[in-house]
Amino acid sequence: MVNLADALEKEGISAFRFDFCGNGESEGSFQFGNYFDEVGDLRSVVDYFAGSNRSTITVLGHSKGGDVVLLYASKYHDIPAVVNLSGRYDLKRGIEERFGKDILERLKKDGYIDVKTKNGEVEYRVTEESMKERLNTDMHEACLLVDASCRLLTVHGSADEVIPLEDAKEFAKILPNHQLKIIEGANHGYSSHQDELVSVVLPFLKEMCATR
């Protein structure tokens, strides 16, 4: 995100980065799932700039943020373009790999689990309610609600070790007005492919700015 924002600044395009509530430098407690609350966070940012006579051309998110920007576009139809970097299409996937095959039984029994650091400190809590919210968040249905005039770009690394490339291809099948760009060899964080990521996203954003 930092490198993309720097690249935009060099092109004279303003970019605003923020952490969702409970993440990074933002206040609040981290919540597992919490997709629609984060859509609300994004809405607050868009509204803030609208109130300052600044129009938002594009919303861009990585990983879970990719899902959040798509969910935003499915609910609000005031953004001309969306960039989804390595978002997950099937939110039912990845749960057992992350928490164990018996996660749903443990949540049903105890109501929550605590995810701990290597030092044994509680990093965050997963509740049965928050897990249900994730499992009931249907990205397929959300994509069907995105306005056909909204331009969409999905970028995914071919070597993504967290979210499989197949998820990006599923987005490409259903989203209207959509481009899919695959960065060969890139992992989930584009660790060794930052320049390639900028080279894919920057022309799309420059074109959007030029047409506004």
TrEMBL record:
<dbReference type="InterPro" id="IPR022742">
    <property type="entry name" value="Hydrolase_4"/>
</dbReference>
<dbReference type="InterPro" id="IPR029058">
    <property type="entry name" value="AB_hydrolase_fold"/>
</dbReference>
<feature type="domain" description="Serine aminopeptidase S33">
    <location>
        <begin position="3"/>
        <end position="95"/>
    </location>
</feature>
<protein>
    <recommendedName>
        <fullName>Serine aminopeptidase S33 domain-containing protein</fullName>
    </recommendedName>
</protein>
<dbReference type="Pfam" id="PF12146">
    <property type="entry name" value="Hydrolase_4"/>
</dbReference>
